[in-house]
Every structure is written in C-alpha cells, then in structure tokens.
Amino acid sequence: MSQETGLRPCEIARSISIEVAAKFADEVDKSGRFPAEAIGAIKENRLLSLLIPVELGGAGASFEVVADICSILSQACASTAMIFAMHQIKVSSLVSHGQQSVWHRQFMSRIAAEQLLLASATTEAGIGGDLRNSICAINIFGDRLELEKMATVISYGKYADAILVTARRNAEAASSDQVMVALTKEQYRLEAIGDWDTLGMRGTCSEGFKLVSNAPVQQVFPKPFAEIAAQSMLASSHLLWASVWYGIAADAVTRAQTFVRAEARKRPGSPPPGALRLAEAISMLQMVKSNIVAGLDRFAVAQKSEDELMSMGFAVAMNNLKVNVSQTVVQIVNHSLLICGIAGYKNNTPFSLGRHLRDAHSAALMISNDRILGNTSNLLLVHKHESGLLS
After folding, report:
1. Exposed/middle/buried for 355, CB within 10 Å: 0-12, 13-18, 19+?
2. Rounded-to-integer distance, Cα 271 and Cα 260, Å
3. Tell me: the pLDDT tens digits for 194-218?
4. Domain span at 136
C-alpha cells in the first residue's frame, strides 16, 4: 500500500483498517501492546504528514480528512486510531503555530520526510490532569534549555520519535505561564514511573515517565501555550477524539445490525426482538455524526478568525461536543450489546463487543468530563448561551 498508487488518503486508511488494524486489534488489546503493524502501515503510506503543508513535504490535507481517517481506523482498532489522532493533534499545533519559526518549519519537513510519530507530555504529577498548569519549568543556559518533568501519562512514549512538552516559561513564572517545546528522541530520556494495565485503549501504551531533556532554546514554540491550547489544541483534540469514538460506536452498530438481519432471516415475517433497539442506536449514531460534522464546519470557519478561535462561544461549543459524544458512545455500544446478547458478551465471536465497550468508557476520562463541565459552567457565568438555530 502506498500513496503512489493514486488512492486517496481515506481509501488508503480503509485498506489499512481492514487488512492490518483489524487483523491485530484483539491481540493488541489482550496483550496491551503497541499496534506496531498498523502504525507501520500508516508510516509506510505517509499518513503521518497529512496536515503538513505541501511546500514542507506534506500532503496539505484538510482537517476533515484527518477526522474521517480517525473514524475509519477506529472501526477496526480504537488504539491505532487514538494514536493517529493524538499525533495529528500535535501536528495541528505545529502547522498552526510553527510556521513563523525556521526550526519548526524544518521540523515539519523532517516529520514528512521521516514519518516521525509525535507524542505529547502535557499532564504532570501534582496538577490533577489540568493541562493548563505546570509545576516543571524550563531552565535556560545560553542557547540551550534543560527540562525535567514528571509526566503521569505520555501515550506511546516509548514508541514516539518526538515529544511536545509543556512547562512553565522559567522558574519564576506562574503555573499558568506555560510554553511548549518540541523535543526529538535523541534530546530526552524517559524513566518509567507508572505502567498501563487498563480497562480499555490498552494499545495506546500510555505509561507515566520522568522526562529529562536538553535541547536548543529555538525549539520552544514562539507563541505561549495558552494561545496554542485555545486556538488549535482545544478544537483539534475534541474533534479528533470524537471521531475516534464515533468509529467505535459505528462498528458496534454494524455488528448489531448484522446480528438483527441474521435473526430476521431465521424467522421470516417476525421482527427480531432487537430491531427497535437497533433503530434507537442508529438514531443516536446519526446524532453523534451530525454533532461532529457541525463541529468540523465550525472549526473550519473559526480558523479564519483568531477572535472566534479565542471566543467563549467557540470554547463552549467544543466542550459540549466532547462531553456529548463521550457520553453517547457508551450508550450506543450498550444498546448494541443488548441487541447481540450473549454473542456480543462473549469474546471471539463476530458480534463481540467487549473491546468496544471498554474502549468507549475511556472517552469520559480524556479529559475528565467533570473538569470540562466545570470549565464550561464558569464560561457561562459571563457568556450567554447560543439560542439561535443558524446564528
């Protein structure tokens, strides 16, 4: 498989999903191992540089295409899709906020040429999952920086080629005065501080690490992390995560529909017991899809206006998207499980839904829905909710 075949990125992703990701999904889940085969195929087909501009060696693809690929991959292996999504979230920050920096432009060219896999170190021991605060700080010595961070989670950190890390601007800076720095593999070392034996999303290998690094100062992003988070990370994270969760739900519904059709063939003229519940599940799935598509459209419009990207209304909309999709995906998979019954409850059947249900439960925890709702409630104290249908 290769982009040189003339296939579109989504067609390539569908082929990877069917031929590679689906083949190893259960093994990846059972052993909690990195989905090396699927990520290898993604690299081979140059899908890691989709968002990077053409002049820097990338495909210059739209964000909508990347979201679609997240949903396609997730219908086979949610861990593969989540790794792809988290990588693209980091690339989105580079494309949005690194264009004016010579080093970051060269780094994007290197990502495209070498198909580097990017990870993220934004969480930290002692801050309770609040990515907008840091305890660690950058220490600058001449033209170099040193950084030590106790990162409670660095998804696929052992397998990444580079990590984008947040920290306080300096030792005297406030916890919210953060910067982000891109570190390549040869510039840091990782010491494990926690394992990843989890209910779901097991293949993301999201272990905790102590990260120790030394790198040139020029690798710090030109903009403060507060702007990066508001203008690219908020929307890209919620939209791409939601696309992954949609893929989990879509495959669960596909299995449920196949089950109902098989039951209908056994008893012609008698509606199967799960038919009505299937209609409910498909209705919820359509609602999730509509919310994501509407969110993608709104993000596309907002990217033309920095004021809109920084607005409370946009933040509330993206927060609501994340909460709604993360809650609904569990309901959809639950419906599908009830439809398939014991065939869905058992492992190793065509209708098995245990992995789907376990993966779906991660959605409300990335970032905690309670934290997001708390942030939204604070915004609504000063922002009138949007009551219009088209405006």
Report:
1. buried
2. 9
3. 899 999 999 999 999 999 999 999 9
4. 119-219
